[in-house]
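User: Please work through this fold.
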Amino acid sequence: MKQVEAIHTLVYKHRDLILSARTGWGKSMNFQSVPVLRNGGICLMIMPLNALESDQAQSIDKLPCYRSYVLNGETNSPALRQRIRNGEFNHVLTSPEIALGKKLLPVLQDSKFQDRLVLVAIDELHVVDQWGTVWQEEYSQLRELRSRVRRGIPWFGTSATLDPVMLESVKS
């Protein structure tokens, strides 16, 4: 699959997509593009490590018209959640623990936020299978997050190391 086809699937068909491609292929460009192509929407990005969140946020913020925020244990304040709810950021990068937590729930359920949410992305999708059963249980509970957002919002999972067994596991 080419990047253009992946973006078309997410932006115009509003369909879920799992993309396994080598490191350096440009998987990030797909989830970075969707909010801008969807008229200033918001991408909620689930990532396994704070360092990856920070690196991705720095890359996103270099692009014109892009504003990202890393929502983690240190930044998860009521004031920040209000800014997220108000749509000040088009990329919100966070962990599964924060995304599934009670503090973010009112934001996720807010109708104005739901209207702007255009993509839920899970980077390093292989960790859902690898970590979700033994180390970071929240990864195995991400289907709960799906029930918290409006139907029709596409989900996009990316990985460079997703083998066929893991693929079937994360699909279920």
Q: What stands out?
A: The radius of gyration is 15 Å. The mean pLDDT is 81.
